[in-house]
Amino acid sequence: MYSIQIDPETALKEAVAFNRNLLMGLDSIAKMTDIEVGFSEKEAVMRDDDVILYHYKAKKKKLHETPVLIVYALVNRPFMVDLEPGRSMVQNLLDLGLDLYLIDWGYPDRAERHLTLDDYINGYIDRCVDAIRERHGLDKINIASICQGGAFCLCYSSLHPEKVKNLVTMVTPVDFHVKDGLLNIWAQPLDIDMMVEAFGNIPGDFMNFGFLMLKPWQLLVQKYVGIVNILDDTANLQSFLRMEKWIFDSPDQAGEAYRQFLKDFYQQNKLIKGEVELGGRTVNLKDVTMPVFNIYATEDHLVPPSSSKNLFKYVGSDDVTTLAFPGGHIGIYVSGRAQRELAPKLAQWLKER
Amino acid sequence: MNYNEQMQRLFRSWTETQQKAAQQWLSTAQEFGESEAWNVQSWIDRWRQGARSTAEGILKNARGAPKDVGKKLLESSDTYLHFMDFFFDAMKNAAPKVDGGTAWPEAIRQYADGLLKSVRVDPTAWMRAGSVGDDVAELWKLFLGQLKFLGQPWLESMREAQGHVGEAMGGDRRAAIQMVNLFTDTFQSTVGKFLSAPAIGYAREYQEKLTKTFESWMDSRSAEAAFQAELTNTGVHALEALARAIQAKTDAGEKITSPKALFNLWVEIAEREYFRVASSEGFARLQATYVNATMHYRIHERVLFEEVYKACHLPTRTELDDGYRHLYEVRKEVKKLKLEVASLRREMAEAKYAYPAPRTEPTSVPPAAAATPAGKTSRVAGRKKIATDKTPAGGKE
């Protein structure tokens, strides 16, 4: 018997239910007010051009003396780690007694077009680290870095190991020439110089479209068909809309920084070869000698596991912990399991050091 | 006969008809300018013959309204050609009279009156009007020769395209790319050559920017077509994979009982097939060619827009970028200087503790009375001095 056994009556019922949900859901959509992300209370403690260093206000007693600086990627806003109550890595870490800071890179405009990776790493990150060290009277702080921010912080830790006590890297690409990531393959034949000349700053929408094209059917079609099922559930709908806001709120990337990141990291894989040059100094991952906690997502389609998990082979530290966490690139922060497991593991690891 | 066979027969018939029509026009075009005995009348006769045979081919099996419309079109074509006959004949008759001193409006009017009389007597006589002068024939010959050079490649490409259309409809994705390449190659070999030639004249700078922009636009459209063809190919592979998946489920006795389940299966398979194609180097190259060509066009587009901005007294992107670069360099220099100043301040503060400045005593005060007890500090308004020994300036007691 042929496998497609769709009974016309069942199909019609399904279609009617779909349309009913859609029509009734229009009411829910109409009642939605502006959606905010990044709800945890924080204060701006330093401004450096458009970059802001935030300090989160803890509601519980701080149990860890050494503060943690969260360094996110330049792509998308950093508040994915603080999406909403109940789905916030920041809130979970604060509840576990950590003292948290976060770098907000802002929205680069054309005036920032000439910012280089040296400006970001040896400039903004270094000044933020110095500001925190001065506030707390410490020589070293902890850094928790995410995705491209992880690549930046590996470079920073290599060049300034005296300022970093412990380094956490999450879903961080290290080997950019693995063949099971579409971004790695697509980046190779691109003329990056021409792209930077044409765009100046690389538009966030352009990068977004590239990310959507990694899984076009799921991200452009199935996701929006599925929303019909949650239109009558206000909480779920708000969560969905917050994710949508975060996904598409993409700042442009400064042209020169983008040029060097794509050419040196993606196209020439210089990070693991020890050939990245920043401010006249060469980055050697063997100089990363502090304890490292490397977390990667097992179903990550943006930074495939093979790109991330072998960090231990390249750094000079003899205290490297690698954790494979179930989930995707974003799910590792917003899934239910992540709320229960990731922050406690992270806090425990830092506490032991 | 099943549906596939019917469609194939239809495409084949349509393709053959188009090929025959194109061949007929092509041979007509080829004869232009080649025959020594060529004249307007023969050109008109050949055009009439070509139009009739094309119409007969297309309308052979037509019935009802399509056939009537086809016949009307043919008649209107005939009428146009008869008008051409009339026009050249009028010029031939009026020219000698103008030479003889008759005012040309009068000469034309006399000819028209004569023609009107003959039309009333014999309505078809004007259709058989004679040829033009030898000089005009020569000009027409040259003109049509050049038209042949520009037009013949297009006719040939249109003829070749018929075959590619049929192949594309049969599922050969390369045919679509070949068809696009056919037209872009024809463009390059005809009009494109003029666009690539160096510009001349007062506006040559702007003209060159314009032509380069247009060339880059053509390149980007060509790259886009190739990329879109590849994406379409991915969809075809996905459909084939879906059919295989459904067959596998049938063999396993599994059922799909809802449209939602079928949709989810489609998404899963389409995504898998897409990943398989998209992770190939060929796809990456096609995509990169498309992106690079678009960036190239964008650069030229900006150059063109900046010409307009300049004319409108507006700052251009290039000028602003130059300003931003200077701003960036100045900001970087200022930060560097601030760090150096802070460092120097620290060094100075450390130096004061390590090497305090010797105390200077006023001359009217006896040295013994002015000595500061050890361990105490003296204050000068606005500055705090470190405790000094009794040795006054100059080392005198």
Commentary on this structure:
The complex is a heterodimer of chains A (353) and B (397). In chain A, helix 2 (89-95) packs across helix 14 (336-351), helix 3 crosses helix 4 (148-159) and helix 6 (192-199) runs antiparallel to helix 10. Chain A contains 14 helices and 12 strands. Chain A is 43% helix and 16% strand. By secondary structure, chain A is an alpha/beta fold. Chain A has an 8-stranded mixed β-sheet with strand order 1-2-6-3-7-8-11-12, with helices on both faces. A two-stranded antiparallel sheet of chain A has the order 4-5. Chain A has a two-stranded antiparallel sheet with strand order 9-10. Chain A has helices at 8-31, 89-95, 117-136, 148-159, 182-187, 192-199, 204-212, 216-226, 234-248, 255-267, 270-273, 305-308, 331-334, 336-351; strands at residues 42-48, 51-56, 68-71, 82-84, 87-88, 100-104, 141-146, 164-170, 277-278, 281-282, 292-297, 320-325. With 397 residues, chain B is mainly alpha-helical. Helix content of chain B is 76%, strand content 1%. Chain B has 12 helices and 2 strands; from the N terminus they run ααααααααααααββ. Chain B has helices spanning 3-31, 40-59, 65-99, 104-121, 134-169, 173-189, 191-196, 204-252, 259-278, 281-311, 317-354, 367-370; strands spanning 379-380, 383-384. A two-stranded antiparallel sheet of chain B has the order 1-2. In chain B, strand 1 and strand 2 (383-384) form a beta hairpin. Chain B is flat and about 140 Å long. The chains are: A alpha/beta (353), B mainly alpha (397). The A-B interface holds A 1-7, 10-11, 14-15, 49, 110-115, 119, 123, 179-180, 182, 185-186, 188-191, 194-195, 197-200, 213, 215-218, 221-222, 225 and B 246-247, 249-250, 252-260, 262-264, 267, 270-271, 274-275, 278-279, 281, 284-285, 287-289, 291-292, 295-296, 298-299, 302, 317, 320-321, 324-325, 327-329, 331-332, 335.
DSSP, total strands of chain B: 2
Total of helices of chain A: 14
Shape of chain A: globular
How big is the Rg of chain A? Answer: 22 Å
Largest interface, Cβ cutoff 8 Å: A-B, 43 and 47 residues
Largest sheet of chain B: 2 strands, antiparallel
Quaternary state of the chains? heterodimer
Spatial strand order of the main sheet of chain A: 1-2-6-3-7-8-11-12
Task: Indicate the mean pLDDT of chain A.
Answer: 92
Terminal CA distance of chain A: 63 Å
Shape of chain B: flat
